[in-house]
Amino acid sequence: MSEEKYDYRTALKKLKEKMGGTKAELLERNKQRNKDKKLVVQAIKEGLSTVPKVAEKTGLPTDRVFSIINQLVKYEGLVMKDKRSEYPVYGFVEEGEKDE
C-alpha cells in the first residue's frame, strides 16, 4: 500500500460537482420540515396537548402533526402522558421523571 493519505474531502467535492450538488427543492423541503417541527414542539411545550389541539394551534394538517409527533416520540423524548381520553395527550419528559 502507498503511504500517501487519501483526501476524502476533495474526492467528495469532485463527486458533488459531477452529480450537480443538492437540489434546491430538497433543501426547501427540509427547511419547511424543520419549521413545522419547531412549531409543533413549541405548541406542546406550552402545555400538554393532543394531535388535534396542536394542529389547531400551529395551523398544520393533522396528518403532518401526527407524523412529527411520532418522530418526536421515537427520537426526542416526547411521551404519551394520558391515554384515557379520546385522543392521547402528549408532553415532553421532565428532568425528574423516569420511564414507567
General description of the model:
The protein is mainly α and 100 residues long. The protein has a domain at 24-92: Arc Repressor Mutant, subunit A. 56% of the residues lie in helices and 9% in strands. It has four helices and two strands, in the order ααααββ. The chain has helices spanning 8-19, 24-45, 51-58, 62-75, and strands spanning 78-82, 89-92. A two-stranded antiparallel ribbon has the order 1-2. β1 and β2 (89-92) form a beta hairpin. The model has no long low-confidence stretch (mean pLDDT 87).
Low-pLDDT sequence parts:
none
Rg calc = 21 Å
CATH superfamily of the domain at 24-92: Winged helix-like DNA-binding domain superfamily/Winged helix DNA-binding domain
**Might you state the CATH topology name of the domain at 24-92?**
Arc Repressor Mutant, subunit A
Counting helices, strands and paired strands, the structural category is mainly alpha
Give the helix level as a range of percent: 55-70%
CATH class division of the domain at 24-92: Mainly Alpha
Strand content: 5-15%
> How many helical elements?
4
Mean pLDDT: 87
**What is the number of E strands?**
2
- The largest sheet has its strands arranged as 1-2
Shape: elongated
Element-level helix/strand string: HHHHEE
The largest sheet, given as strand count, sense and whether it forms a barrel, is: 2 strands, antiparallel
Whole-Å distance between the termini?
55 Å
CATH architecture of the domain at 24-92: Orthogonal Bundle
Protein name: Winged helix-turn-helix domain-containing protein
Organism: Candidatus Heimdallarchaeum aukensis
